[in-house]
């Protein structure tokens, strides 16, 4: 939390407005810039609950979509605080200052395979961060009720199908699964010792609008559009992988029911439950691809490969009878219907062809200091092209003098604190446009790629950047992210 001054006042004012409630519920949703957290927070706010979000915007997948989700939530009245679960003072302040009645704990380091590359991040977020959250909750008076995300991955090497909450879950197949099982055990401990009311939800392969780009439905859609081969894992003997793909609206239904039905924390004997939330209709990955092909109208290129030892399992299948009985949970969305809705959203989201790569090159106006490092983080910028000692995407004209940030000036602002190797510097527009700079020309041409082919030939990059900026650059998220930065005398501001 900002210590004092305008930033603190804005923080407190916005958070107070966000937590206004007509229902008596004030819900802290952790992971609001994430897929499930975004949808749940939006639902709660729409029905009148006070909702406050928290997210650290980690770059496990491109953070542009996270800032888009957070901005859409803010437009709906939900404020997302940029903070980490391990920031205990922040958690204490949020829970006590805004009288939080419920916590929907969805923040976590996601991904099964990535755990083999950065295991420490999973322990820091999923275990240490979860403990910090429960510690903060146990000292509240009254204590909030807590619904937290587990995962179907806890079933690990279990071979009995469908997976039931009564099955043993002591053979995880990945570190991610182990951390989610640890969440359930830690939750039980805090329930037993401190009387915290706890409900755990084991999600089964969620997909839908605003989904995660690293998950199969999203990543496969991108590759089908690009004409790239899909890598499809196979088990022993060429067996197909099966997943219980669950549409986001059905998952939200289960989360909302859990929040609404969880009894109060008592500081003594309290509620403790774990539920499966799935579609109860597992299908092969190949069938999922067929649904995508029908929705997109284009065939996929398939490349079947043996499943690597990175923690994936052959099949997931949810027994949701307990959730049906106690939460009135009823998944209703067929895979084809859900995929059709996802593709409709995907087409709208990228309707102007503004992919992550395009956003990397488009000029962004922000009302505060040009913080290149933060801009890099927001848009996952691979390169910034400078021509004639200023960003190529800065339009020529009268604004050039005050808006242009030169390569040399940028170096001075950063003062050696950031690696400038991703920056390409070209001496002139002519040089940029000639064959002497094929990399830059190719980069500019790639910006013009559309699903239906290529737009008119590139005449002047300035024309393209101006047009793209007018269409949609999602600059507002950058502005909101940087609004509290105080302009400095040695900074380029506009």
UniProtKB/TrEMBL annotation:
Keywords: NAD. Belongs to the NAD(P)-dependent epimerase/dehydratase family. The keyword Ribosomal protein does not apply. It comes from the Eukaryota. The keyword NAD applies. This is UDP-glucuronate 4-epimerase 4 (UDP-glucuroni c acid epimerase 4) (AtUGlcAE1). InterPro entries: NAD(P)-bd_dom, NAD(P)-bd_dom_sf. Residues 28-341 form the NAD(P)-binding domain.
């Amino acid at each position: 939390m900002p210590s004092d001054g305008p930033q603190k006042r804005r923080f407190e004012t916005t958070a107070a407005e966000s937590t206004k409630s007509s229902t008596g519920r004030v819900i802290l949703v952790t992971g609001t810039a994430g897929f499930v957290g975004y949808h749940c927070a939006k639902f709660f706010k729409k029905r009148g609950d006070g909702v406050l979000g928290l997210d650290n915007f980690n770059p496990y997948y491109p953070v542009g979509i996270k800032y888009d989700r957070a901005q859409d939530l803010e437009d709906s009245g939900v404020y997302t605080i940029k903070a980490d679960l391990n920031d205990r003072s922040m958690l204490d302040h949020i829970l006590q200052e805004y009288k939080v009645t419920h916590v929907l704990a969805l923040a976590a380091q996601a991904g099964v395979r990535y755990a083999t590359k950065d295991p420490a991040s999973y322990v820091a977020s999923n275990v240490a961060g979860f403990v910090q959250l429960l510690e903060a909750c146990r000292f509240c008076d009254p204590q909030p009720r807590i619904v937290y995300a587990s995962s179907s991955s806890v079933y690990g090497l279990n071979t009995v199908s469908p997976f039931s909450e009564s099955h043993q879950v002591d053979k995880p197949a990945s570190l991610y699964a182990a951390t989610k099982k640890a969440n359930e055990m830690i939750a039980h401990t805090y329930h037993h010792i401190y009387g915290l009311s706890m409900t755990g939800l084991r999600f089964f392969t969620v997909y839908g609008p605003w989904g995660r780009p690293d998950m199969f439905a999203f990543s496969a859609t991108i590759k089908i559009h690009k004409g790239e081969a899909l890598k499809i894992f196979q088990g022993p003997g060429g067996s197909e992988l099966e997943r219980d793909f669950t549409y986001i609206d059905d998952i939200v239904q289960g989360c909302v029911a859990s929040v609404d039905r969880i009894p109060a924390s008592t500081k003594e004997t309290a509620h403790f439950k774990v539920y499966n939330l799935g579609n109860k209709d597992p299908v092969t990955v190949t069938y999922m691809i067929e649904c995508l092909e029908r929705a997109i109208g284009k065939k996929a290129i398939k490349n079947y490969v043996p499943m690597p030892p990175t923690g994936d399992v052959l099949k997931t299948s949810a027994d949701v009878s307990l959730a049906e009985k106690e939460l009135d949970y009823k998944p209703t969305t067929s895979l084809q219907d859900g995929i059709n809705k996802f593709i409709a959203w995907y087409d709208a989201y990228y309707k102007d062809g503004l992919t992550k790569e395009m956003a990397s090159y488009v000029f962004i106006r922000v009302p505060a200091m040009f913080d290149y490092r933060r801009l890099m983080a927001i848009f996952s910028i691979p390169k910034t092209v400078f021509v004639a000692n200023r960003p190529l995407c800065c339009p020529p004209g009268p604004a050039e003098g005050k808006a242009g940030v030169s390569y040399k000036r940028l170096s001075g602002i950063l003062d050696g604190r950031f690696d400038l190797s991703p920056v390409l510097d070209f001496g002139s527009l002519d040089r940029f446009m000639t064959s002497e700079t094929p990399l830059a020309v190719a980069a500019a041409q790639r910006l013009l790629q559309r699903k239906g082919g290529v737009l008119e030939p590139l005449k002047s990059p300035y024309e393209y950047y101006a047009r793209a900026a007018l269409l949609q650059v999602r600059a507002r998220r950058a502005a909101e992210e940087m609004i509290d930065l105080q302009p400095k005398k040695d900074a380029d501001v506009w």
